[in-house]
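Protein folds are increasingly written down as discrete tokens. With that in mind, we are printing a sequence and the tokens encoding its fold.
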Amino acid sequence: MNSSEIPAFHEVLEESSLSDNSMEIVKISGRRIAVIKRFGKLFAIDNDCPHVGGFLGRGTFDGNSVVCPLHQWSFDLATGLSTKGLSDMRVVVHEVKAENGKIFVKLK
């Protein structure tokens, strides 16, 4: 793999714009990503629920899961696995980091 094929981190938000226990939807390369700060930790997951496409970034929290606003299916923020809904459903979890006051996401 050459350097042009290595997935890059994309700057998505100012760190100060994301308070604890909140979510923002950002677009990276045409994909909607929910960037989440929960209990002081950053997460980034695909925004669209695999059930019927509800925006997870407009959902609510249940512990360490995000709950889809349409049918209340939920997904673990760290693993993407369904915690309520079909057990084989999942959302893609992306690498996320904060540096110098900015939040960056690397797509999978």
